[in-house]
Structures are given as C-alpha cells and as structure tokens.
Amino acid sequence: MDNQKQVAHDGWDEYANKRIYKSRGKIGIWRSLGFGAFSFFSISMQGLVGAWLMFFYTTFAGLTAGQGATIFLIGRVADAIVSLVMGNISDNIYKYKLGRKFGRRHIFILAAAPSVLVAITMWVAGMSFWYYLVTYLIVTVLMSTLQIPWETFPNEMTKDFNERTKMSTTRMVLAGLGGMLTQFVPAQLFKYFPKTSPEPYILMQVIFSVATFFLILVTYHTTWEHFVTKAEAKKLEAEALEENNGEKPNLKSELKNYFSTFKIKTFRLHMGIYLSSYFATILFSTVFVYYIVYVLKMSTSTSGFLQSLSIVSIPVTIIAGFAVTKFTYRSLYLFGYSLILISAANWAFVAFTRPAHMMVWLIVGMSFYEVGLYILYFAPWNVFPFIPDLDTLVTGKNRAGLFASVMTFINQIIRDWHPLLPVTYWTLRTSVNQLVVLSHNLPAQLT
C-alpha cells in the first residue's frame, strides 16, 4: 500500500491521466476550429500592431517616425531573443512539477488568456516615448513566449496527414478571418469618430482582446498534448548527456541543437518560402496606410476597407487545402507569386497615372495580392507540422518546440527591418517637398 501511495503521488506519472494529456478521438472540423481559435491571439496582439500602430505613434502619440521605428526595432530584437529560447523551454519544462501538472504546452496557453489584455495599454494617446517602448516590449515578448508552444499542437495531437492538413487549413482560415477583421472593425469605428480622435484605436484593441480572451480558453479545453513519462524523461536525459560527452547541456550544446534543425532540407526550403511571404505582408501592412493617405490622398477608412478584403483568404485557404492534394507545391508557389507581382505593378500604375475609377483598380490589386499571399502562406504551413516527424526519424526526439522556436526567431530577425520603411518614406517625402519649394521659389529669386 505504501508503495502504491508513493507511485500515486510521485509528482510525475500521477499527472498522466489529466485531461490535457488525453486524446479525444478523431480530429474533425470542430476540434480543428478549437485549435485554430488561438490564432486570434496573434491577430489581436500583432495584426493590429502591423496595420495601425506606427500610424498611431506618428499621429496621436506625438512620436516621430524615427522614434516609432526605434521602438519597433528594440522590441523585435528582444522578441527574437525570446523566440530563440522559448521552444527549448517549452520542450523541457516537463522536468519541473509545474510543467507536468499543467502541461508543457498548455501552461503557456492558459497564461495567454489574461496576457492578451495587456495589449490595450499600447493604445493610450499622449504618453511618453518610454511608456510606448515598455508597453510594446511587454506585448511583443509575450507574443512569442505564449504562441510558440501552441504551434506544436498538430505534432502533439496527431500523426495523420489528413488531420494535420485539416488543422493547418482551419488555422489559416481563422487567421485570414482575423486579418480581415483587424481592417474591417477599425474602418467601421473610424466612421463614428473624428479623424483627430485616438479613441477608435484603443476601442478596437479592447474588442479584440476581450474576444480573444474567451477564444484562448476554447483552445485550452479542446486540445491535448503528449505526456512525457518518467521513463521517457530518463531516456531523453541519458541521450542528452551522451550527445554532450557526458556533460549537462550548456550554451554551446544548445546552439548546436538550434543549428541542427537546418540539417533537414525540407525545413530550410519551406522556411525560406514562408519567411519571404511573411516579410512581404508585414512590410505591406506597415506601408500601405501611408500609401493610401499620403500618396493617393485618401482616408484611413479607405485603407481599412481595402485591407479588409483579406476575407478572400477564407475561400482561398479552403480551396488550397484541396488543391495541395491535386497539384505540386511548386505549382501553388508559382501561381501565388505571379499574383503578387501583378498586384505590385497595379500599385505603381495607380500611383503614377491616377486612373479613372481608382477604387476599382485598388480593389482588383488588393484582391490579387490577398489571393496570392494566402496561397504562399498555406503551402509552407501545411508542411511544417510534418517536419518534426522527419527530425524524430533522425534524432529519435520530439523537438517540435525547438523547430517552432527557430522558425519564429528567424521570422523576427527579418521583421526587425520593416519599421525602417516608413522612416525612409518620410525622409524621401520631406526631401521631395523641399525640392518642390525650392523649384517654385527659384524663378522669383532669379528675377
């Protein structure tokens, strides 16, 4: 009896029967929706930031474009560092009782629910540079800390190709819906507030944060993960010591682990495709509002309406889910990039020629852009959940968190540079304006 009691309360395998470790059968559309609901976490904290925060900083916060870009850069560097270590922390937190009790993935999902409310603090007008820097740092670090563990769920929950494809497709559909809402909801709010009012910005964040709070709880209760037993933990520890010549893991061995992910060729290839697409959309979201307001002399509500056309991502992602079983990935990529190039030519044409029926041209260009973008989003994300399986065949370990961490780290490094684009724009715009003034004044000065 004493031995049974000791095993029952050993602080390890006693947690194996918790609900978060129990598979609940086949993964259908409803459970996929439960998993994908968490994507609104990134939308509510990152989608609004990418589309509106720089404009908010330079219009209502009293910051210069340079100060806004500085905040973005510092935040992204901090975020990249956190992203690099977060996957490893999530993979190994089972070594502690807290991680076994609440789950090495679910503990972070549970923490995300109240954390999403912190994003509201970024949208308070009239504060100091340091206030905006600190609030942005907190939000962007929370973003990676809490999202990386969630990205491992397809690998944790199933090995079936069709089920993982269903989860990836559903996730992308919900992300597309969220991206559309980050443009549509602000556009509607702008109609009821003066252009000089910062209130719609904080109100839109409150709406998304409160809704996301409850959606995160849905994800928590509809997903599960693999439980690392005491026997498995001993085996993993022994393998780690063997790989590190009998020594405990250190900085050198951890860095070696990160670089080892690139031994998987499929990971290198699809990472490059995904990051180029992701960088493009971050760049586009940051600059587009400036393009509409300052180049075309149209309103912010017009920008919001056009970007809300991302709703096309919903049918596009669903169609791509079927197309991936009929066509090669190369065909999907070629089609997607072709549409992106056509849309880019359209933006230049509109800016230089100001054609009649300009809104029609803008809607067509945005539609091409959104369709191409979400094709280029979908294909890599359909592959990523299977890459850790290839790694498991090579290493014998489940390093899904490590792969998610490396992917996010590289993603953040690339994204660090996009805030410089508005600064470059403002610099060029100021220089052009000065040249125009000089050209107008020169004839008078000569006479």
TrEMBL record:
<feature type="transmembrane region" description="Helical">
    <location>
        <begin position="358"/>
        <end position="379"/>
    </location>
</feature>
<feature type="transmembrane region" description="Helical">
    <location>
        <begin position="28"/>
        <end position="57"/>
    </location>
</feature>
<feature type="transmembrane region" description="Helical">
    <location>
        <begin position="202"/>
        <end position="220"/>
    </location>
</feature>
<feature type="transmembrane region" description="Helical">
    <location>
        <begin position="273"/>
        <end position="293"/>
    </location>
</feature>
<dbReference type="GO" id="GO:0015293">
    <property type="term" value="F:symporter activity"/>
</dbReference>
<dbReference type="GO" id="GO:0005886">
    <property type="term" value="C:plasma membrane"/>
</dbReference>
<dbReference type="InterPro" id="IPR036259">
    <property type="entry name" value="MFS_trans_sf"/>
</dbReference>
<protein>
    <submittedName>
        <fullName>Major facilitator superfamily transporter</fullName>
    </submittedName>
</protein>
<keyword id="KW-0762">Sugar transport</keyword>
<dbReference type="InterPro" id="IPR039672">
    <property type="entry name" value="MFS_2"/>
</dbReference>
<feature type="transmembrane region" description="Helical">
    <location>
        <begin position="332"/>
        <end position="352"/>
    </location>
</feature>
<keyword id="KW-0813">Transport</keyword>
<keyword id="KW-0472">Membrane</keyword>
<dbReference type="Pfam" id="PF13347">
    <property type="entry name" value="MFS_2"/>
</dbReference>
<feature type="transmembrane region" description="Helical">
    <location>
        <begin position="107"/>
        <end position="124"/>
    </location>
</feature>
<feature type="transmembrane region" description="Helical">
    <location>
        <begin position="305"/>
        <end position="325"/>
    </location>
</feature>
<dbReference type="GO" id="GO:0008643">
    <property type="term" value="P:carbohydrate transport"/>
</dbReference>
<feature type="transmembrane region" description="Helical">
    <location>
        <begin position="69"/>
        <end position="86"/>
    </location>
</feature>
<keyword id="KW-1133">Transmembrane helix</keyword>
<keyword id="KW-0812">Transmembrane</keyword>
<feature type="transmembrane region" description="Helical">
    <location>
        <begin position="171"/>
        <end position="190"/>
    </location>
</feature>
<feature type="transmembrane region" description="Helical">
    <location>
        <begin position="130"/>
        <end position="150"/>
    </location>
</feature>
